């Protein structure tokens, strides 16, 4: 028997997997155990680093403010946070003091020591921590079928035994701080190093419910080196420049008027042009791919959402009901009971009703229905974020109804279609996640045969794509597996976009049937497929990916004409009209601004082509190009200029510099 310190002398090893479970290096193992090292720069190692940094943050807060009550402090993508209940909100000055105290704790090299406790012991030790006591209570009820249901809370209690981590002074052996936690952690605080920083303050409801107290949240980040921290901070600076909310204002694309309400966007003319191009291109591709567009209302009686189960499983995400159809007599007595209507949160139930409207044969399948359907979600105000998290948005929704033996072939077509379409918009870096069931049989519905068949079908499709595939056991919906496609943008951020979800559940709930070749009634399988996710969110992703400088075909204004002087307005105006006649979005700037200011203005607006004309151009029947990066191409014949511009649109090219057009 030995512990991890004896097994792994490499200082980059900060934890280990023992029979597949993450454990501290202090854990004792036997010769029968399968033990793997976890290095600090691995995904697991980074999560442990960040979790340990969160503990140090909490210790620093309670050192400075002993009355602060602890919420939870999980690692998250690129960092960590910790929630606190404090009498006075934190300020930027608070962060400076906490930064100094955290640095002291890290330098002291306190050891993270794991200790198993009973529920009674945990309650006694944490008697002054009400939020920890609540988590302990949830842990106790989990054994009776109740749990917190929050992955972030699992860092505190998780599965199995209750544990407390003590921060122990290496010189005196004294426990200087402790926290309820399942771990694992770094061996000591010194290993956090200097690649960390506190980032920002926020407010958050306890356990994500507005019915609970609002806590103060501190976000931080942690990396293995100072250089990695600086690189991350640089990426954040670049992301801030590309923030779609900022670009939306600067480029006059969209807004969120207070008079309409939070999370409800309006699209300005220039933003509307981009959205129109996106939708029309997608529509052409869908029609060519065998999809049929349908249209459904924004509102429905509650019966539909009861049958689909949305009012059972998703009611908190739906807007409150609208009472309609009630009738009263002259005295105000109800003569006809009313009916509750709901704004639709999803399009699938209505597409199902279209399928069910008449009898279907195997010859009708696959049936591919598509809709740009606006849906409504009752998002918390604190969760709203520009166009990426809104209360009203348009899903480019498709629902395919297939026979079981068509599942793999049709899913292959769907995946090829999705990847091809996203490449049309200039995205190239993709990976896939296959969400599958796990061995906890009580979590899933449907037969073993269905799960094996459908999961293998999706796995075959994913592997055939040639993209990186990560299998995610236990992450499937309760009724079927799914594939999620993720893409990486120009500054390396990963976005989840398209989802392909296999669903035998709704066809069962709505009693959908088709007549098979043998004359028997059988149940179709439904495939949910959102390509963009939502048009609003995809627009925001593209806007940030291109930093507002869209490819020519998507640019709100593709060409601006800038005459050197007023006398050249008629000449350049005729060229602009020629471009408009060939389907180019072209404008002529006849403002009183000086030419150099016009150039600066349209460069700031990220117009792909500025056409400039003076005496030499007029005499030679040419035009001069100026590009986004300031490069130029002078004396281009008019017909050639039109042909080059038109080709860049038709080929969906990104044009930033002269060589992108005249290579």
Q: Which helices and strands occur, and which strands form pairs?
A:
Blueprint: E1 2-3, H1 4-7, E2 13-18, E3 21-23, E4 28-29, E5 35-39, H2 43-64, E6 69-70, E7 75-76, E8 79-85, H3 92-108, E9 111-117, H4 119-125, H5 130-142, E10 162-168, E11 175-180, E12 196-205, E13 214-222, H6 226-242, H7 244-250, E14 254-255, E15 266-267, H8 269-288, E16 292-293, E17 299-301, H9 302-307, H10 310-313, E18 322-324, E19 327-328, E20 334-336, E21 339-343, H11 348-356, E22 367-376, E23 392-402, H12 407-424, E24 430-436, H13 448-464, E25 468-473, E26 482-488, E27 494-503, H14 505-509, E28 514-515, E29 521-522, E30 525-530, H15 535-545, E31 559-563, H16 569-581, E32 586-588, H17 595-604, E33 609-613, H18 615-620, E34 622-626, E35 632-637, H19 638-650, H20 658-661
Parallel strand pairs: 16-22, 24-25, 31-32, 31-33
Antiparallel strand pairs: 1-4, 2-3, 2-5, 6-8, 7-8, 8-13, 9-10, 10-11, 12-13, 14-15, 17-21, 18-21, 19-20, 22-23, 23-30, 24-26, 26-27, 27-30, 28-29, 33-34, 34-35
Account of the 3D structure:
- The structure is a single chain.
- The radius of gyration is 30 Å and the shape is globular.
- The protein has 663 residues and is an alpha+beta fold.
- The protein starts with a strand and ends with a helix.
């Amino acid at each position: 028997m030995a512990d991890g310190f004896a097994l792994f002398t490499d200082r980059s090893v900060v934890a280990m997997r023992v029979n597949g479970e993450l454990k501290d290096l202090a854990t004792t193992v036997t010769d029968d155990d399968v033990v793997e090292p976890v290095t600090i720069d691995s995904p697991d190692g980074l999560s442990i680093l960040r979790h340990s940094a969160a503990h140090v943050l909490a210790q620093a807060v309670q050192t400075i403010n002993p009355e602060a009550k602890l919420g939870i402090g999980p690692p998250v993508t690129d960092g960590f946070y910790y929630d606190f209940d404090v009498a006075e909100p934190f300020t930027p000055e608070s962060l400076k003091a906490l930064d100094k105290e955290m640095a002291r704790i890290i330098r002291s090299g306190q050891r993270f020591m794991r200790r198993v406790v009973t529920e009674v012991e945990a309650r006694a030790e944490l008697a002054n921590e009400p939020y920890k006591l609540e988590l302990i209570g949830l842990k106790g009820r989990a054994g009776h079928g109740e749990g917190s249901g929050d992955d972030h809370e699992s860092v505190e209690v998780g599965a199995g035994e209750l544990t407390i981590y003590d921060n122990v002074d290496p010189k005196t052996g004294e426990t200087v701080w402790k926290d309820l936690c399942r771990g694992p952690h770094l061996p000591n605080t010194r290993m956090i190093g200097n690649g960390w920083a506190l980032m920002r303050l926020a407010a958050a409801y306890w356990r994500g419910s507005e019915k609970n107290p609002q806590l103060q949240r501190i976000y931080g980040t942690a990396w293995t080196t100072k250089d990695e921290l600086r690189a991350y901070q640089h990426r954040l600076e670049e992301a801030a420049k590309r923030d779609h909310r900022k670009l939306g204002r600067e480029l006059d694309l969209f807004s969120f008027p207070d008079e309409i309400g939070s999370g409800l966007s309006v699209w300005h003319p220039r933003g509307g042009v981009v959205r129109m191009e996106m939708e029309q291109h997608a529509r052409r591709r869908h029609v060519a791919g065998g999809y049929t567009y349908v249209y459904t209302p924004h509102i429905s009686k509650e019966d539909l959402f009861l049958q689909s189960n949305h009012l059972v499983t998703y009611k908190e995400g739906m807007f409150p009901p609208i009472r309609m159809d009630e009738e009263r007599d002259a005295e105000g007595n109800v003569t006809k009971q009313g009916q509750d209507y709901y704004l639709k949160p999803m399009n699938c139930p209505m597409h199902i009703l279209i399928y069910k409207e008449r009898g279907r044969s195997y010859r009708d399948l696959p049936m591919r229905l598509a809709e740009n359907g606006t849906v409504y979600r009752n998002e918390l105000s604190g969760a709203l974020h520009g166009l990426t998290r809104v209360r009203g948005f348009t899903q480019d929704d498709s629902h395919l109804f297939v026979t079981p033996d068509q599942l793999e072939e049709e899913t292959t077509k769907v995946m090829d279609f999705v990847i091809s379409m996203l490449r049309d918009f200039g995205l190239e870096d993709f990976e896939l996640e296959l969400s599958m069931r796990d061995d906890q049989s009580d979590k899933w519905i449907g037969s073993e045969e269905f799960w094996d068949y459908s999961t293998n079908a999706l796995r075959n499709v994913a592997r055939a794509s040639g993209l990186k595939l990560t299998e995610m056991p236990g992450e499937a919906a309760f009724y079927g597996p799914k594939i999620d496609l993720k893409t990486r943008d120009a500054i390396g951020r990963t976005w989840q976009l398209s989802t392909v979800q296999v669903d035998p559940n709704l066809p069962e709930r709505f009693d959908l049937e088709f007549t098979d070749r043998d004359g028997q009634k059988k149940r179709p399988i439904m495939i949910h497929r959102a390509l963009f996710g939502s048009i609003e969110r995809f627009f925001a992703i593209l806007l940030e990916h291109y930093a507002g400088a869209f490819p020519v075909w998507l640019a709100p204004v593709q060409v601006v004409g800038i005459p050197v002087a007023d006398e050249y307005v008629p000449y350049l105006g005729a060229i602009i009209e020629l471009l408009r006649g060939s389907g180019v979005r072209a404008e002529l700037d006849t403002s009183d601004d000086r030419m150099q200011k016009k150039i600066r203005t349209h460069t700031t607006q990220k117009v792909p082509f500025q056409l400039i004309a003076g005496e030499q151009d007029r005499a030679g029947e040419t035009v001069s190009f100026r590009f986004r990066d300031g490069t130029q191409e002078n004396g281009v014949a008019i017909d050639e200029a039109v042909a080059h511009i038109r080709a860049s649109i038709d080929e969906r090219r990104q044009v930033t510099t002269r060589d992108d057009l005249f290579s």
